[in-house]
C-alpha cells in the first residue's frame, strides 16, 4: 500500500468530504477573516434575484393578479422553510455542503443525483441570463414582431450588433474576469451593485405605472385567471416552475455560510434576503402587469422598447434595459460559482479542491462557459428554458431534496411540523411539475396539429 505524503493526505478526500470548507480559505488567502453579514445578504439576494424576476409578470398574467401575488408570497415562505431544514440537518450531520447533507441521508447515489440537478438547474439559469442579455443588447422576436436591442437602436444593424457577436464580447470581457474568482465573498461588491440595479428597474416600472394610473390612461388588469377552455386551465400550471425557479438559491447557502465570520447568522441572512427579494418580486409583478396588461411578454424587459405613453419614454426604456442588463452580468458569476463547484464534485470526487488546482479550475470553467454560450445562442426563449429547468431540476433542488432529508431524519431531529411541511412540499412539487410538463407536451401537440392541418 502506497503511503501518501502528508500534503496529499491533507487534501485527499472522499465523496462525503466538503467540496469547499472555510479552512481552505484561511490557510491559503492571507488577510481574509471571514465574510460580513451585509456581504452575505447581498450575495444571497443576488443569487435569488436573477432572471426569474423578468418572467414573473408573465406568470401573473397567466394566473391573474390576486392568485399570482399570493403564489409569489407562498413561494418565499416555502423556500425559507426548506432552507431552514437544510441548515438544521447540516449541523446535525456536520456537513458544510448541500450535497454532504443529502449524502448523509441517502448515500453517494443521493449526493450524485442532487449535484446533477444543481448542475442542470444552474446551467439552465445561466443560459436564461445570457438570453436576456442578448435580448437587451441585440433585440428579440415575439409573435412575429421585432423588438430592437439597445445596440441595434444606437448603431443600427451590423455584423457586430448581432446576438452572437455581442454575447461573445460580453463573455470575453465581462464574464471571464468575474468567474475567475475562487472565493464567493470576492463578489460582495458586484452583488451589492446588482441588487441596487434591480431596485432601479422596479422603481422605474412602478413610477411609470403610477404616472399612467394618475392620468387615467391605464386599464385595470385581470384579478383572476381567464379560463376559456381546458388548455387555458392546464396552462396555469406552467407558471409553477417559473415561481419555483425565482427563489432557488439553495446551491449557494453553504458556500456563503462557510465564509461567514459568524455562521450562526445564516438563518437571519436567509430571512433578510428572502424578504428583500420577495418584495422586489411582488412590486415587479404588480406594476409590470399593471403597466403592460395582456401585452406582457414572457420576458417583460422586451416590453421596454417602445413608447410608454409618458414624457422621456425613450430615455426610461434605455435606463431600464441598461440597468437590468448590467444586473444580470453581475448575477452571472455568483451562480456560476456553485455550478463549477458541483460539477467538479461530480467529475473529480477524490481530487484536491478545485481552488487549489489551476489547470482543473481553468478547464472546468472554460467547458462550462462554452456550453452556456452555445445554449444561449440556440434556446429560443426564456420561457422554454425556465420550463425545462424549473419543472425538473429546480423543483428537486428547492423542495424535493430538503423534504426528503427531513422525512429520512437519520439524526432523529425532525419535528411533527417538519414532516407535515415536507409532505406538503413534495405533493406541491410533484403535482405541479407533472402538470407543467404535461401541459407543455399538450401545447406542443396542439401547435404541431395546428401546423399540420
Automatic annotation (TrEMBL):
Biological process, per Gene Ontology: amino acid transmembrane transport
Recorded superkingdom: Eukaryota
Compartments where located: Membrane
Keyword annotations of the record: Amino-acid transport, Membrane, Transmembrane, Transmembrane helix, Transport
Gene Ontology molecular functions: L-amino acid transmembrane transporter activity
Keyword flag Transmembrane helix: yes
Spans annotated as Disordered: 1-21
Any GO CC annotation of this UniProt entry: organelle membrane
Main location: membrane
Domain Amino acid transporter transmembrane: 36-435
Residues that span the membrane, as ranges: 40-60, 66-87, 108-132, 160-179, 191-211, 231-249, 269-292, 322-341, 361-379, 385-408, 420-445
Membrane topology label: Multi-pass membrane protein
InterPro entries referenced in this protein's UniProt entry, alphabetically: AA_transpt_TM
Pfam families, alphabetized: Aa_trans
Protein name: Amino acid transporter AVT6A-like isoform X1
Annotated organism of origin: Juglans regia (English walnut)
Amino acid at each position: 500500500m502506497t503511503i501518501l505524503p502528508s500534503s496529499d493526505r491533507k487534501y485527499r478526500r472522499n465523496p462525503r468530504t466538503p467540496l469547499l470548507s472555510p479552512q481552505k480559505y484561511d490557510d491559503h488567502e492571507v488577510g481574509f477573516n471571514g465574510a460580513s453579514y451585509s456581504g452575505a445578504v447581498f450575495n444571497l439576494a443576488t443569487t435569488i434575484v436573477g432572471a426569474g424576476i423578468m418572467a414573473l409578470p408573465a406568470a401573473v398574467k397567466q394566473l391573474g393578479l390576486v392568485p399570482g401575488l399570493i403564489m409569489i408570497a407562498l413561494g418565499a415562505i416555502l423556500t425559507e422553510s426548506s432552507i431552514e431544514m437544510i441548515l438544521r440537518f447540516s449541523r446535525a450531520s456536520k456537513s458544510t455542503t448541500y450535497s454532504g447533507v443529502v449524502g448523509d441521508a441517502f448515500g453517494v447515489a443521493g449526493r450524485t443525483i442532487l449535484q446533477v440537478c444543481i448542475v442542470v438547474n444552474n446551467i439552465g439559469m445561466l443560459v436564461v441570463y445570457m438570453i436576456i442579455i442578448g435580448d437587451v443588447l441585440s433585440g428579440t422576436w415575439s409573435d412575429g414582431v421585432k423588438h430592437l436591442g439597445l445596440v441595434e437602436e444606437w448603431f443600427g444593424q451590423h455584423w457586430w450588433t448581432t446576438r452572437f457577436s455581442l454575447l461573445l464580447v460580453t463573455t470575453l470581457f465581462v464574464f471571464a474576469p468575474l468567474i475567475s474568482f475562487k472565493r464567493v465573498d470576492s463578489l460582495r461588491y458586484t452583488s451589492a451593485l446588482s441588487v441596487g440595479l434591480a431596485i432601479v428597474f422596479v422603481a422605474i416600472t412602478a413610477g411609470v405605472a403610477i404616472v399612467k394610473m394618475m392620468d387615467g390612461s391605464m386599464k385595470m388588469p385581470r384579478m383572476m385567471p381567464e379560463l376559456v377552455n381546458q388548455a387555458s386551465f392546464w396552462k396555469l400550471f406552467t407558471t409553477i416552475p417559473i415561481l419555483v425557479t425565482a427563489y432557488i438559491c439553495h446551491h449557494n447557502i453553504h458556500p456563503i455560510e462557510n465564509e461567514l465570520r459568524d455562521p450562526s447568522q445564516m438563518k437571519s441572512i436567509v430571512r433578510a434576503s428572502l424578504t428583500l427579494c420577495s418584495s422586489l418580486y411582488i412590486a415587479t409583478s404588480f406594476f409590470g402587469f399593471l403597466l403592460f396588461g395582456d401585452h406582457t411578454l414572457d420576458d417583460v424587459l422586451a416590453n421596454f422598447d417602445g413608447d410608454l405613453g409618458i414624457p422621456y419614454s425613450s430615455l426610461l426604456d434605455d435606463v431600464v434595459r441598461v440597468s437590468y442588463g448590467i444586473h444580470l452580468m453581475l448575477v452571472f458569476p455568483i451562480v456560476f460559482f456553485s455550478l463549477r463547484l458541483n460539477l467538479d464534485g461530480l467529475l473529480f470526487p477524490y481530487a484536491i479542491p478545485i481552488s487549489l488546482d489551476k489547470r482543473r479550475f481553468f478547464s472546468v470553467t472554460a467547458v462550462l462557459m462554452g456550453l452556456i454560450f452555445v445554449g444561449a445562442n440556440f434556446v429560443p426563449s426564456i420561457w422554454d428554458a425556465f420550463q425545462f429547468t424549473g419543472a425538473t431540476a429546480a423543483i428537486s433542488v428547492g423542495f424535493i431534496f430538503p423534504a426528503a432529508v427531513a422525512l429520512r431524519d437519520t439524526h432523529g431531529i425532525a419535528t411533527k411540523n417538519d414532516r407535515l411541511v415536507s409532505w406538503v412540499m413534495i405533493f406541491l412539487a410533484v403535482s405541479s411539475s407533472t402538470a407543467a410538463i404535461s401541459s407543455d407536451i399538450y401545447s406542443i401537440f396542439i401547435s404541431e396539429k395546428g401546423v399540420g392541418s
